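For the sake of transparency, this paper describes our internal protein records without simplification. Because each token names a local backbone shape, the row as a whole describes the fold. One such record is reproduced below, unchanged from the form in which we store it.
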Amino acid sequence: MNTKTGKILEERIFSVSEEEAFETLALDVFRFQHGGCSVYRRFCDALDVDVNAVQTIKDIPFLPVELFKKHRIVSFPGDEAVAFSSSGTTGSMPSRHYIYDLGIYEKSFLQSFRLFYGNPADYCILALLPAYLERKGSSLVYMADRLIQASDHPLSGFYLDELDKLSANLEHLMAEGQKVLLLGVSFALLDLAEQHPMTLRNTIIMETGGMKGRRREMIRAELHQVLCDAFDQKAIHSEYGMTELLSQAYSTGDGLFVTPPWMRILIRESNDPLAYLAVGRTGGVNIVDLANLYSCSFIATQDLGRLHPDGAFEVLGRFDNSDVRGCNLMIG
């Protein structure tokens, strides 16, 4: 790994804005990772990709997200600072994301939060993330912890199964007129809604998805309606992220997610991973996350989605594992 090149790319990533500059930077990151990540290079070789022929983002091979389960996907030598891991489903192998520099992750989520929501210090941040707190290696818990620290409000913090205490603190914060961000996994927010329905003011409720086997799966619209009714809200916000990414997209409640400037979404043809669909058509979600500088920035997810003309995107469901094309090139 060329350390100097990495540092230069890092500076460019968090200052990128215009579309043309993004594409140029993405191509530079592709070449950096092709040279530095042996797993990604083998994947490109399996697709018979000529690096010199890659001239646009759509020429770049997108690594199937499943490969994070069986391979150490890194673009740096030596040991990682930390390894984040996914929760996984029962009996499945978790994904692991080996992090070279936690400072890049912090820069990504703090800069993104400020872009979409302002200064964390303006909020009391309440994190209702029991499924994540009960295991080690959660990138979401790491992010929430740093946001809680940045909030610096005496009531900011994590809540495991303390729904009575959380409800009482919410009532107190409402009385004070304090701005609140309530960040929670879906099943825990539903538990709170059933046990402590209340009218919340000056509060953003943000679900991070996931029933984690605790409740029946619900479509996002149904989940949001239940929460809106229980807490007298017009909209529920959502966070779109995953262990394999160091950036997040956010929705303010209309089901449309918006990315920070260093992240882009492309929609691939379901039956041809190298073909892309026009705006408005449904297919597989490919993500360019330039904050993944020291792993792989080009990820083909298992999500189904649709792009809108303004660059926002919807998540409409998931592929079956068997439908994720390209994995057979590397898994084994």
Q: What stands out?
A: The longest helix spans residues 19-36. The first strand starts at residue 63 and ends at 64. Residues 72 and 315 are 27 Å apart (CA to CA).
